[in-house]
Specification:
Blueprint (H helix, E strand, L loop, with lengths): L10 E4 L6 E7 L2 E5 L6 H9 L4 E7 L4 E6 L2 H5 L5 E4 L5 H4 L25
Antiparallel strand pairs: 1-2, 2-3, 4-5, 4-6
Length: about 120
């Protein structure tokens, strides 16, 4: 059995960029990071219009563990049976230099003359 289309239970972890708590797990071989707050139908529409994917939060197995299942058009049109969450999106002010002076990323260097006898 190949392991490239795996789905794993989601776990609460910290985001590497903004340190907020997110749900992280694999769905169909893709790593998903989602905000753990459930969405109302209006909030789901705003998330979809904003370019974020939404997922059903299924509780499966014994003991019950949360799995993230992508909401395709079939699931979007069907009545809701599970909580819905959206992909995580970091806010720019949490991980960028907001409000400070611009950072100069150009490194200056002096060009060294080549020696007549290289050391190698």
């Amino acid at each position: 059995m190949s392991g490239h289309l795996i789905s794993t239970a989601a776990a609460l972890v910290g985001c590497r960029r903004c340190a907020r708590t997110v749900l992280e797990g694999y769905d169909g071989g893709q790593l998903i990071r989602a905000d753990p707050a459930p969405l109302a139908p209006e909030d789901e529409l705003l998330a979809l219009l904003g370019g974020r994917h939404t997922y059903d939060l299924h509780l499966m197995g014994l003991p019950r563990r949360p799995y993230l299942i992508w909401r395709c058009t079939f699931r979007l049109r069907a009545p809701r049976r599970h909580q819905v969450v959206a992909t995580h999106e970091c806010t720019p002010t949490q991980h960028l230099n907001a409000g400070g002076p611009p950072i100069n990323l150009i490194a200056s260097y002096r060009k060294q003359p080549l020696p007549e006898k290289p050391p190698f």
